[in-house]
Backbone:
C-alpha cells in the first residue's frame, strides 16, 4: 500500500499553488536545529531518521501539517526516542516560557 | 544575555502559535542539555540565509562560458562547484544535468523535499507542496505549462526524482543573443526556477 509521503502520481491532485512566503524566524530555527543535530560534528540525528519520523506521521496529520511543523514533530520524536528530551519536558517548557511572557 | 531566543529581535506581531512555542521550548531544552548552543543556532540560520540561488547562477554561468568546467561539472558536480569557492556543506551527492534544445530536465522530490540547499538555499513552498510532488512525475508537461513553460512536442522531458542522497542541479539552455555577455551578466539570467527546470533562463531583453 502506498504510504502518505509517497506522493508520486497521487490521485486527485490539483493545481500547484505557486505563492511563496519568506520563512519565519521559527521556521528558520527549526531548520537550523535539525541541521545542527544532523551535522557531522554532532550526529545526534540522521537525515533518514528525520524522514522516517515524518513518514510515520498519521496520514491526515501529515497532509494538514505545515512543512516545518512536520520537521519539529520529527525532531521531538527522534530526541524522545534517543532519550535526549521527553514530550513531557517540552510541554512543561512551553508552559514555563508562555508564563514568562 | 539570556540563553533562549528572547535575546533576539524577532518578537512576533501575532499571538505565538503552538508551533512557535514548541520551537522555543525544544531549542531552550537542547541548549540547557548542552546539545546545541544559541550561538550555533544563530550561525546556522545565518549560514542558510547566505545560501541563495545566486550561488547556483554563478555555477551555471561558468558552465556556459567554460566547456571544460561544464564537462567536469557534469562528471562530478560537488568537487567542481568547490573550484569556484562554493562549498555545499554536508549535503548529499549533487548531480548536474544539462538542458538542451532536445532534452529538458525538471526536478522534483516525490517523497519529501530534497533539494540542493547548499547551492540554491531553502526550497520554495511549491516545491514542497503535495500537488507538485504528485503531478511532476506523471504529467510533467502540464505542470511545466502551469509555470508558463510550454515545450515543443519534440523536446524530450526527463523528470528527476531526488532523494536524500542525491540532489539535482539543472543547467538551463543558454539563451540566444548572449554571445558577448560577461559571466556576471550571464549569471543574472539564471533564475532559481530555471535551475529546478520549471522555467528557462531569462532572455537578455527581459533581464
Residues:
Amino acid at each position: 500500500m502506498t504510504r502518505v509521503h509517497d506522493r508520486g502520481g497521487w490521485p486527485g491532485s490539483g493545481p500547484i499553488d505557486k505563492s511563496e512566503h519568506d520563512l519565519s524566524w521559527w521556521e528558520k530555527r527549526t531548520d537550523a536545529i535539525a541541521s545542527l543535530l544532523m551535522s557531522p560534528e554532532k550526529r545526534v540525528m540522521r537525515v533518514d531518521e528525520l524522514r522516517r519520523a515524518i513518514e510515520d506521521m498519521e496520514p491526515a496529520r501529515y497532509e494538514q501539517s505545515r512543512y516545518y511543523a512536520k520537521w519539529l514533530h520529527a525532531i521531538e520524536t527522534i530526541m524522545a526516542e534517543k532519550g535526549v528530551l521527553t514530550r513531557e519536558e517540552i510541554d512543561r517548557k512551553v508552559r514555563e516560557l508562555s508564563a514568562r511572557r | 544575555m539570556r540563553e533562549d531566543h528572547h535575546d533576539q529581535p524577532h518578537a512576533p506581531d501575532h499571538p505565538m502559535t503552538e508551533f512557535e512555542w514548541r520551537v522555543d521550548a525544544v531549542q531552550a531544552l537542547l541548549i540547557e542539555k548542552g546539545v546545541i548552543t544559541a550561538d550555533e543556532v544563530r550561525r546556522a540560520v545565518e549560514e542558510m540565509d547566505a545560501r541563495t540561488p545566486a550561488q547556483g547562477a554563478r555555477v551555471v554561468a561558468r558552465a556556459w562560458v567554460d566547456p571544460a568546467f561544464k564537462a567536469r561539472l557534469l562528471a562530478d558536480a560537488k568537487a567542481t562547484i568547490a573550484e569556484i569557492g562554493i562549498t555545499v556543506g554536508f549535503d548529499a551527492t549533487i548531480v548536474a544535468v544539462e538542458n538542451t534544445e532536445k532534452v529538458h530536465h525538471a526536478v522534483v522530490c516525490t517523497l519529501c523535499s530534497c533539494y540542493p540547499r547548499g547551492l540554491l538555499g531553502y526550497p520554495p513552498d511549491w516545491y514542497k507542496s503535495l500537488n507538485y510532488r504528485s503531478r511532476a512525475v506523471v504529467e510533467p508537461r502540464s505542470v511545466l505549462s502551469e509555470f508558463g513553460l510550454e515545450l515543443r512536442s519534440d523536446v524530450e522531458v526527463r523528470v528527476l526524482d531526488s532523494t536524500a542522497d542525491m540532489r539535482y542541479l539543472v543547467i538551463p539552455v543558454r539563451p540566444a543573443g548572449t554571445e558577448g555577455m560577461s559571466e556576471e551578466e550571464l549569471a543574472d539570467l539564471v533564475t532559481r526556477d530555471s535551475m529546478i527546470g520549471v522555467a528557462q533562463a531569462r532572455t537578455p531583453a527581459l533581464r
Notes: Chain A has five helices and no strands. Residues 26-100 of chain A form a domain with the Cyclin A; domain 1 fold (CATH 1.10.472.20). Chain A touches chain B through 57 residues (CB under 8 Å). The radius of gyration of chain A is 16 Å.
